[in-house]
């Protein structure tokens, strides 16, 4: 289905007009708050908001205690809208306590349930940032570092000992449902098409690939990571398996605060970071800087049997190298509250990453009797400079006595990547005699320029006490240009000569006009949500020098639906459906070959179409006083699944070329189990098991391309408070063999350990961690077709020891308001109880 740009722009203009007219409704027009829906008998409920931003607080811990002896009665977590409800409470006198990391605890006694008040509403509870936030985080240890919800999973990085001195990749390893291989490739429930957001938005300040994004962000810069496995139509539909949102650190404590961290790891690796913030009643200013230096070696082996020959032949390839990475990441911002309802947030970020590669490869070519016919040595030196900047602005407008919220956000970023590769190769006979008088000497200059801009507006309207409407519009433009210059050294003339056959430029521009609407309705035990997102996408791509152009214009619709059933305050069921898209990355589209390895070329496909996925899941969540259980069944059907398909292109050397293709379809169905247990104070563990079946059908490309099989993984993480000042963490992971389009990835497993000690009144922390304690992590991939079979093995440096030191400085707000918050008294009283 197609729609003209003019008609779609007209629709967007109408929606924009509605936005403007609706935001003209002021607080005076809604002085009287809507009467709340009465709470069920024997229940306590309320809504929790952030005192800084007025946004809902998800995953806050609510504890109900007996009024007489403060013994535990029941508990709950707030949902994504900040609401909570504890049910099936006998009549009596109770106390309630609400906790959330980095905020002062809320405490209230005299919560009375009886004949005259069968249900007790706490109204809106405002949590105030804690002036002792930094000390509080240390004392808590690992108690709340992972918040498990039925829709969103939140991982707090501050208390993760195993990622100290590492990158976002190291943090990802500990998150349920996510898998990471030794090359940093991240998959979610068996799919590598994960949407990565930085602070809730796509970011162009980092490299274009998902792997590079995770590797370039130091763990010390991350506050938390959020995982959403089946997003609603409110979110961009990109990513067929879900969203990983990396939230960078931002000052929350009143007054002035400073945090300094340094770390050193084995074999020349280091990390340094500093965070500075100052918060007053109206203004919050903060800045963070992180520096990361690391060196990692690798060794690889590839054994191939070539079948598409007059007689069989064999190719053995051995490689090794060292990569040196230096990363600078800077972020600064401010939040200014004009009044209680109007807030403006501005942020700026800059990233600079330099990678130096020194790689050596040897090729051995053998005949059918496995006798050497020739061999080659290839040396490659790479210098990769990646730098980019980003500016964002966010305006938030809230309203009196209403959950109505209006936001406008705009952002622009630019990333420039410059890669210079110098390559030398010499070929020899079995006797060691050069086949050519002069070696092959090449220089490849590869430059990428990526620009991304968007503006969007969102409006949340409570239609009544149990129904709300969310709607929004967005425009996004993405532009990418890739310039490749290929030169070879001519020994007779003593000059560099360009190879015009291998030199070209590829340009790509994409514009997306979108609008969404989501309607939600809540009942006593059930909540329904349905929505849809419509997108018009125009894209232009082409080879600049050759004049070949590719253009597309499409209209897509992405529906979503969610049904939640909560029979009690500690149990919940959820069914979710969404239609999602995976737009091909630029390297999937660029038809120009990647010559890094001449025996394994890779081409993009400008005619490649996006993947479209129907994603469903059914989840069950059960909370106990010291344990939470989450069980999920999920299924994904993807049409036009994108896969790299390889064939032999040179029957003499056995060289292959791979091209990205759209297969007929792929399916993934599985079950996920997460159990988080804290049996006693100071000890807890989390178990994550994931088993799935996958199938890929590509008989439109190759009749033999129909692969299916089972795969899965398991993770176990535990923490022990050895003393009040010393905490120990241990984590193990096992990845079962996984089928691919043309073969199998074999099993992988590893174990990490970490120890932390706090001193100087908990203002200083020392952490010792070891990743891959037994040095078992490696990758082995088996590939087969009618033309060849191949066994690939790779080992990267994975056993790394790290020593980290963090020192927290700065004054805190000593006002009476802050002191009351620290003592457990609400700084802002709740709204009156509903009658």
Task: Describe this entry's structure for a reader.
With 835 residues, this protein is mostly beta strands. Helices cover 6% and strands 60% of the residues. The chain contains six helices and 44 strands. It has a 22-stranded antiparallel beta barrel. Strands 8-9-13-14-12 form a five-stranded mixed beta sheet. The chain is globular. It starts with a helix and ends in a 13-residue tail after the last helix.
Distance between the ends? 52 Å
According to DSSP, the number of beta strands is: 44
Taking Cα atoms only, what radius of gyration do you get, to the nearest Å? 28 Å
Low-confidence stretches: 21-37, 131-143, 811-835
The secondary structure category is mainly beta
Largest β sheet strand count, sense and barrel closure: 22 strands, antiparallel, barrel
The DSSP helix count reads 6
Specify the overall morphology.
globular
Percent of residues in beta strands: over 45%
Rounded mean pLDDT score: 82
Give the helix level as a range of percent: under 10%
Give a quick rundown of the structure.
The chain is 6% helix and 60% strand. With 835 residues, it is mainly beta.
Features:
single chain, 835 residues, mainly beta, 22-stranded antiparallel β-barrel, five-stranded mixed sheet, 44 strands, globular, disordered C terminus
């Amino acid at each position: 289905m197609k729609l003209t740009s003019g008609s779609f722009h007209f629709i967007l203009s109408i929606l924009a007009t509605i936005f403007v007219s609706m935001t003209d409704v002021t607080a005076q027009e809604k002085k009287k708050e809507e009467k709340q829906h009465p709470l069920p008998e024997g229940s306590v409920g309320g809504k929790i908001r952030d005192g800084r931003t007025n946004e809902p607080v998800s995953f806050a811990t609510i504890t109900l205690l007996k009024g007489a002896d403060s013994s535990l009665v029941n508990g709950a977590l707030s949902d994504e809208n900040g609401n909570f409800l504890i049910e099936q409470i006998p009549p009596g006198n109770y106390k309630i306590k609400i906790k959330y990391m980095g905020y002062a605890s809320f405490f209230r006694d005299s919560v009375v349930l009886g004949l005259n008040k069968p249900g007790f509403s706490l109204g809106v509870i405002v949590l105030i940032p804690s002036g002792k936030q930094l000390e509080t985080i240390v004392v808590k240890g690992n108690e709340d570092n992972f918040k498990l919800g039925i829709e969103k999973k939140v991982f707090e990085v501050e208390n993760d000992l195993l990622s100290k001195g590492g990158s976002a990749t190291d943090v990802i390893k500990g998150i349920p449902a996510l898998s990471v291989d030794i090359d940093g490739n991240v998959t979610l429930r068996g799919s590598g098409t994960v949407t990565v957001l930085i602070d809730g938005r796509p970011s162009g300040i980092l490299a274009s690939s998902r792997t590079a994004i995770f590797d370039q962000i130091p763990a010390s810069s991350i506050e938390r990571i959020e995982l959403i496995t089946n997003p609603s139509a409110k979110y961009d539909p990109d990513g067929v398996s879900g969203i990983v949102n990396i939230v960078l650190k931002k000052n929350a404590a009143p007054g002035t605060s400073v945090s300094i961290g340094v770390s050193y790891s084995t074999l020349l690796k280091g990390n340094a970071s500093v965070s500075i913030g100052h918060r007053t009643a109206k203004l919050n200013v903060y800045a963070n800087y992180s520096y990361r230096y690391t060196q990692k070696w690798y060794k690889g082996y590839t054994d191939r049997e070539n079948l598409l020959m007059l007689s069989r032949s064999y190719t053995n390839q051995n490689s090794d190298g060292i990569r040196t990475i230096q990363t600078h990441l800077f972020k600064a911002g401010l939040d200014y509250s004009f009044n209680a309802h109007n807030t403006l947030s501005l942020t700026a970020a800059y990233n600079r990453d330099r990678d130096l590669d020194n790689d050596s490869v040897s090729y051995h070519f053998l005949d059918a009797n496995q006798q050497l016919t020739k061999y080659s040595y290839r040396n490659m030196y790479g210098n990769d400079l990646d730098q980019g900047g980003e500016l964002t602005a966010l305006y938030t407008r809230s309203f009196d006595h209403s959950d109505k919220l209006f936001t406008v956000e705009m952002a622009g970023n630019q990333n420039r990547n410059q890669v210079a590769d110098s390559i030398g190769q010499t070929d020899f006979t079995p006797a060691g005699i050069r086949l050519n008088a002069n070696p092959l000497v090449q220089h490849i200059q590869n430059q990428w320029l990526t620009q991304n801009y968007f503006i969007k507006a969102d409006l949340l309207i409570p239609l009544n006490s149990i129904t709300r409407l969310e709607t929004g519009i967005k425009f996004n433009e993405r532009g990418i240009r890739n310039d490749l210059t290929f030169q070879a050294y001519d020994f007779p003339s003593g000059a560099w000569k360009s190879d015009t056959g291998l030199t070209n430029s590829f340009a790509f521009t994409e514009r997306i006009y979108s609008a969404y609407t989501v309607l939600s309705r809540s009942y006593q035990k059930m909540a329904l949500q349905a929505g849809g997102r419509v997108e018009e996408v125009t894209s232009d791509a082409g080879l600049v020098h050759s004049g070949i152009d590719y253009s597309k214009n499409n209209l897509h619709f992405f529906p979503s639906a969610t049904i939640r059933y909560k029979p009690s305050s500690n149990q919940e069921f959820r069914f979710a459906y969404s239609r999602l898209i995976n737009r091909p990355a630029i390297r999937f589209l660029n038809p120009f070959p990647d010559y890094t390895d001449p025996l394994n070329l890779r081409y993009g496909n400008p005619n490649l179409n996006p993947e479209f996925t129907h994603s469903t899941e059914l989840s069950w969540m059960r909370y106990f006083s010291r344990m939470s259980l989450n069980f999920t069944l999920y299924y994904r059907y993807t049409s036009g699944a994108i896969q790299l398909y390889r064939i032999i292109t040179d029957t003499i050397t056995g060289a292959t070329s791979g091209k990205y293709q759209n297969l007929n379809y792929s399916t993934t169905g599985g079950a996920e189990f997460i159990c988080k247990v804290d049996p006693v104070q100071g000890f807890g563990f989390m178990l994550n098991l994931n088993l799935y079946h996958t199938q890929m059908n590509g008989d439109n490309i190759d009749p033999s391309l129909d692969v299916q099989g089972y795969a899965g993984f398991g993770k176990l993480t535990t923490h022990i408070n050895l003393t009040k000042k010393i905490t120990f963490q241990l984590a193990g992971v096992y990845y079962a063999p996984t089928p691919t389009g043309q073969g199998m990835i074999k099993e992988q497993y590893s174990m990490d350990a970490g120890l932390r000690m706090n001193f100087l009144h908990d203002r200083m922390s020392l952490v010792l961690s070891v990743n891959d304690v037994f040095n078992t992590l490696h990758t082995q991939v088996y590939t087969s077709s009618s033309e060849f079979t191949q066994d690939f093995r790779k080992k990267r440096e994975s056993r790394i020891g790290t020593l980290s030191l963090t020192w927290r400085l700065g004054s805190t707000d000593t006002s009476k308001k802050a002191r009351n918050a620290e003592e457990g008294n609400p700084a802002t009283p709740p709204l009156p109880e509903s009658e």
